[in-house]
Amino acid sequence: MRRALQLLRLSPLLLVAGCFHHAGTSERIARDMGVVPQNTVLLSQMMRELSAEPGFTEQLLQQFDSGSKNGLPFTPELFDTFRKIILGKDWQGLDRFPGWTIHRVTQTVNAGQGVLSKISPPGGDVLKVDLGEYKLDVPGTVSLDKPSTLPGFSDKGLVTPLGHDVVHGDGADPDLAPMHSESARLAEVLNRLSLNSFNPPQGKATAPFTVELGGTKATAPEQLIVALQQTGHTVTVGDARYFANFGHFHYKGQDVEMPFWLDTGLRVPPGHPWQRSRKYLIPVSHAEYEWVVRGPKINADVTFYFGIDGHAEFRTNDQLNQAWVLKRVAHEYTNAQAVEVTRLTGSVLRAYAYLHTAHPALPFGGYYTLGVCQDVVAAIEQKMTGKTTIFPNTADTKYFHDQPDAEVFQLMNAIPKDTEGKPPAPERIFGSLPTSDFGKLTVPGLREDTERTYDAWQRGHLYRRRNLGRWISYGGIVLATIVVAALAISRRRRAA
Q1: What's the angle, vertex CA 261, arms to CA 100 and CA 345, rounded to 5?
Q2: How would you class 186 by CB atoms within 10 Å of its CB: exposed for 0-12, middle for 13-18, buried for 19 or more?
Q3: For residue range 293-335, what is the model confidence (pLDDT) as tens digits?
């Protein structure tokens, strides 16, 4: 969910004040507007200004509902909710869209599977792995001792003007884009090496493929990392967390802040006795692994995640992030740990390739059903550190049970399943945020809510979502106790 995660469609929640006046959503947003990064506007502000432009609202809704392979797998109910917010000019609702629990989102996905398969029919790139010029059925050898001859960075197909001073897509990161040629080659050979032992459900096993570097031959991705280390290169693998950017819009030269909000099930504690608690909503985060390679022959940045384009693969990492998405590296792996993370990632890539081939009819390449970007990172984090600090996870692990790699099934089966409705652990909620310094949060209204909720967790006074049935049950017990006590007192008085 982030830079190459480019939106396509997108649902609602309006927080209202109670009997006593307290800071509602709009008031808190207005109060915190000062922390919005420079050169950044809210989606609601862009829509408020452009909704009067003839045809723009319809054009935008068509963009969201066009079925583009780069878009968010948007269920019919989610899109209908989003459409009502836009047409109803409910800009406050847009600023906390959709505000649902992940369990409710899952229910809409399950309910819309039949419709979604028609929106996103099977076909095209079933394997969903970018191999460049390398073929699965053709053996080959490539040397990395010479510079890459692939073209440099181009924003063609990444940046699209939509009119009315609106641009979709992000351009080059000035620090990373100059390495695009080497990054692209490294991503392609890591993808091809990961599939060296690939046995699809139908067809033949892949032909052997070898990468040479400094006299060493690698036939698996982890072997290539060893070869890089042995030839004087430093390799660092970062477990990176961002806020997911589901829009990638720019308006009048400014970034457009467009998160996708989830209800965590926690409550923001009231600041004063006369206030009520409110739902603690957070923007969905994006998680990925990032390989930073520096050395005498190769300087490259490569990332891996399962994206909303349905691809689970190594990718180049050189588009510019908008400032509001922030970044936090939760873990860094070097030396033998970098080799192990690469090995696990290659196994996961191979498992996804198998599942894509075995289940080509899954809408959006299996995105959401086979997990979101967080699932793979959470599974490997669990393996490497003994715990996971990422939310949410959506993978239906019955699919991974059917693919041949038992280790991958164990990885995916070991992480929490947020689609089942069980509240996520607070450690995972706060761990998913792209900063541990909550003062750096720039999404309006989020900083105070996060600081207050985190403090309550640390003090052991965390509020959770109210369960009406539970409160009714507790109330019945209390009422019955009062009645029994009153009758006992009445009998004693009469006896006296």
Answers
A1: 105
A2: buried
A3: 999 999 999 999 999 889 999 999 999 999 999 999 999 999 9
